Amino acid sequence: MSKELIRLQDLCMAYDDELVLDHLNLNIHDKEFLTLLGPSGCGKTTTLRMIGGFATPTSGDVLFDGVRINDVPPYQRQINTVFQKYALFPHLNVFENIAFGLRMQRRPDPADPTGKRKVKISEAEIKERVMEMLGVISLKGFEHRKPDALSGGQQQRVAIARALVNRPKVLLLDEPLGALDLKLRKDMQIELKRIQQQVGITFVYVTHDQEEALTMSDTIVVLDGGTVQQIGTPEDIYNEPKNAFVADFIGESNIIDGIMPEDNVVQMYGKRFPCLDGGFAPNEAVDVVIRPEDIDIVPVEQGQLVGTVTNVTFKGLQYDIIVDFRGFKWLIQTTDHSPDGARIGIKIDPDGIHTMKKSTYSGMFGDYSSFSEAYDELDDASIELDEEERGDEE
After folding, report:
1. In what order do the strands lie in the sheet with 319-325?
2. Do the beta carbons of residue 202 and residue 169 sit within 8 Å?
């Protein structure tokens, strides 16, 4: 891992006595693409604003290269920000939009030994740096166009170039893809990652879109209620969620009540399933996460569980199938079609089962039906199956 560049230390932020950030601690490293991910109101934009200097924490510290910068104004930080609204100057062409910040800068005159006299950046250097940025964002030849002659994705790239031309150490991006259509958003995810790798600086990205986070990030920070729920690589966050909130927010999940009678065995619906997890107390209650793509449909007689298909949706690459297991609805994603009303069996390999300790989020997610009549009954994972279904599942 590269060196630490930013440290957020015990940050709290309150608006009108409402705590928006609750003792947040986070380290951000040089050349890292870090994404703050979470639902509206989780504190991600507030965190970004404090890094950028647009908000001052109620308590705690923002450190940059080991120096406390709580009171340093935004224009004096080596940090630039790209907002969802690009705020390009409509009367200026692409070149002048990118050059604007450079024209505003003053730096010490090398001919002044006192260092007090400030001079503008030369036109030759401005042109060189703007043209360099146009190459980075793949818009060479567009320098004379006005913003209204550009697509949404092109406007976004100009806004990024305008921020990068000042050579910051950190670029903050606050949901910059939110105004784009789906296809352009997907294209820009790849483009943003390419730009970040090419310029070699730290990107801190805010989004509520899990796909954006998984596609671009080196590190994802999942936030809810002003607190960090989990920090990790996209693979860690997806495959090893820490609690039911993370499991539900990142991708699709079936979250079921379970019990760990012993290591590498979890009990659900009164049946025992081999798994790869351990370290729990004997018979400890757990949340069990099973991703929809990790479930295999098999003939009823071969199934570890047997259920009834209640809904089938064709998604192009796969079918999304809702299956009722004694009133609790599971989502299965498969290339195999099963008609509505069919009785099917399912099998789950041990590495497709992930167990988590109970949390304040337990019981809030997992059922793909708002009208599950047996939801309360199934809260007890040790419930005995009735005779009819015991016969089905054995």
Report:
1. 295-298, 343-348, 305-314, 319-325, 328-334
2. yes
Do 156 and 58 fall within a single domain?
A: yes
Q: Write the CB contacts of 183 (distance below 8 Å, at least 6 apart in sequence).
A: none
Q: What does the alpha-carbon distance between residue 42 and residue 52 come to, in Å, rounded to a whole number?
A: 18
**Which pTM does this prediction carry?**
0.85
My answer on whether 148 and 196 are in the same domain is: yes
Distances in whole angstroms, Cα of residue 291 to Cα of each of 34, 295, 319, 349: 25, 7, 14, 11
Dist CA 369 CA 65 (whole Å): 49
Q: Which domain holds residue 90?
A: 4-238
Tell whether 386 and 307 lie within a shared domain: yes
CATH number at residue 327: 2.40.50.140
Q: Do residues 349 and 236 touch, judged by C-beta distance below 8 A?
A: no
Give dist(CA 250, CA 248) in Å, integer.
6
Closest CA to 331 of 276, 252, 222: 252
Q: How far is CA 172 from CA 19, 77, 160, 194, 281, in A?
A: 23, 12, 10, 16, 43
Question: CA-CA distance, 191 to 173, in Å (whole number)?
Answer: 14
* 10-residue averages of pLDDT along the chain (394 residues): 90 90 96 96 94 95 96 93 87 95 83 80 93 93 94 90 93 86 85 92 94 94 96 95 94 94 95 95 96 96 95 92 92 93 96 96 80 37 40 43
Looking at residue 373, its pLDDT comes to: 39
Two tokens at 152? 């949404």
d(CA 245, CA 353): 17
Could you report how far apart the first and last alpha carbons of the chain are, in Å? 50
In DSSP notation, 219-241 reads: EEEEEETTEEEEEE-HHHHHHS-
| 247 within some domain | no
DSSP H/E element including 86: none
Count of C-beta atoms within a 10 Å radius of residue 293 = 14
Residue 267 sits in the same domain as residue 231: no
Cα 17 from Cα 8, distance rounded (Å): 21
pLDDT of residue 290: 96
How many whole angstroms separate alpha carbon 189 and alpha carbon 133?
A: 18
